[in-house]
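Section 5: illustrative case.
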């Protein structure tokens, strides 16, 4: 189960959209690695928001909250699994995708989570969507579709091989909205 969870995290963190947004953050805060520099704190605020977009989609599949509490729960569950060479290697690969040291353990800053934070410079990050726009067979557009499981009556997100959904580029999505 640990390897499957890591594979899904690796897929999310390795996605082009995620990597593009990470690169934008890194360019926006060039002095983020200098201890005490204001770029450091502001970068990690934005970085935490960005990585949580992936964790919030993956962790609920493993009965963990899609929050920092869920991330810490994941680390607790994976403690013994990290003794296995392959699990440890996959975690190192995830860290490299996040531009972190191989042996880093990602933990949020120690602060109370606030719903709204006043940013007088208007420099607060607005997280984008981690998923591209898709169109279903009826032409409806969304970042994610859920389908009904006729056997159980529940619902689930279709897998990447569902075939019924077509990812749209930004330009295609704009044309679709104008139509």
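Designed sequence:
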């Amino acid at each position: 189960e640990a390897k499957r969870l890591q594979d899904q995290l690796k897929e999310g963190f390795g996605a082009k959209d995620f990597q593009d947004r990470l690169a934008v953050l890194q360019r926006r805060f060039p002095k983020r690695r200098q201890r005490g520099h204001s770029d450091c704190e502001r970068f990690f605020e934005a970085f935490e928001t960005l990585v949580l977009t992936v964790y919030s989609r993956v962790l609920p599949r493993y009965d963990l909250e899609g929050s920092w509490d869920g991330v810490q729960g994941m680390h607790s569950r994976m403690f013994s699994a990290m003794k296995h060479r392959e699990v440890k290697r996959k975690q190192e690969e995830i860290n490299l995708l996040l531009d972190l040291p191989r042996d880093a353990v990602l933990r949020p800053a120690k602060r109370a989570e606030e719903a709204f934070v006043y940013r007088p410079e208007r420099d607060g990050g607005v997280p984008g969507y981690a998923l591209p726009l898709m169109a279903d067979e009826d032409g409806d557009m969304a970042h994610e579709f859920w389908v009904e499981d006729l056997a159980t009556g529940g619902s689930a997100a279709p897998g990447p091989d569902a075939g019924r959904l077509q990812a749209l580029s930004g330009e295609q999505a704009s044309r679709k909205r104008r139509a």
